[in-house]
Recover the amino acids of this structure.
């Protein structure tokens, strides 16, 4: 029984380096992804805040885009351009959507690409 215990020494130095490299990679990935998803949360918040805007369905698409641009600037949303906003009006219902992609550099020639498609439906009062 003592021979078996002597043979088991634990993880080698190379094994620890591999584990630490994996942990470092996932920490780096999280540091890149978390700000992207927080910005998307702010985009959704801005879109949902349009529901509280009085007479929003009576405004023109250009007025709505200007309003969104101002709110994006206030919320420090830089990854979304107001040209990505689509507005469709029909019979007292307005659909506003934002489809965009965020690309973040990881390492070397490896990039991280995250796509979002957020929508809100506004119904006239």
């Amino acid at each position: 029984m003592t021979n078996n215990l002597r043979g088991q020494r634990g993880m080698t130095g190379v094994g620890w380096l591999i584990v630490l490299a994996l942990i470092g990679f996932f920490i780096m990935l999280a540091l890149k992804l978390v700000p992207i998803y927080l910005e998307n949360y702010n985009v959704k918040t801005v879109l949902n805040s349009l529901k509280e805007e009085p007479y929003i369905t009576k405004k023109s698409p250009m007025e709505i885009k200007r309003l969104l641009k101002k709110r994006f600037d206030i919320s420090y949303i830089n990854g979304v351009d107001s040209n990505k906003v689509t507005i469709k009006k029909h019979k007292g219902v307005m659909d506003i959507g934002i489809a965009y992609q965020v690309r973040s550099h990881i390492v070397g020639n490896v990039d991280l690409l995250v796509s979002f498609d957020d929508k809100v439906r506004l119904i006239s009062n």
Observations:
- Residues 2-123 form one domain.
- The mean pLDDT is 89.
- The first strand starts at residue 85 and ends at 90.
